[in-house]
Amino acid sequence: MTLTKRYVLRLFISLKYITANVVDRNNGRIVATSSSVEQSIKKSLECGRSCNAKAATIVGEVLAMRLKVDGLNEGQGRGIHVNVAKEIEKKGFKNQTKVWAIVNALKNHGVKLVLDDQDDSNNSWPSHS
Asked: What GO CC annotations are associated with the protein (predicted)?
């Protein structure tokens, strides 16, 4: 029996840094990553002592580009799963804007996302930017 890979978005947000990973749940490997600590991204940001939603958007855009290059932006046809409510809960309410900035950047750059915490009958995409 062949297992279908299921990709999941995982976020790591602190006051200074933002990292977004797409993880293959079948083997626990990170298949794509983007972070504000990368020199190429860091140079384009004006984070100073903290990273904001603009930095989160750039991290999301870079991750989307990397997923496209690797042919993973469709999550093998099943999409990349993300539980926004869980990510916000882990990061704290004040980081809600950063979480949504990453999610919206991915969506806006052609990454097929599946919101695990949304009712499937609701086809509208929440706008929290």
From this structure: ribonucleoprotein complex; ribosome
Please say if the pLDDT value at position 125 is more than 60. Answer: no
Residue 129 lies in a domain: no
User: Given phi > 0 = left and psi -120 to 50 = alpha, else beta, which region is 47?
Assistant: alpha
Exposure class string for 51-76: b at 16+ Cβ within 10 A, else e: bebebbbbbbbbbbbbbeeeebbebe
95: helix, strand or coil: helix
H helices of 14-82, in order, are: 39-44, 53-69
For residue 22, CA distances in Å to 28, 32, 33, 106 come to 10, 5, 6, 11
| Claim: this prediction has a pTM higher than 0.85 | no
How big is the chain, counted in residues?
A: 129
Structural domain including 30 reads 7-115
Which one-letter amino acid corresponds to residue 80?
I
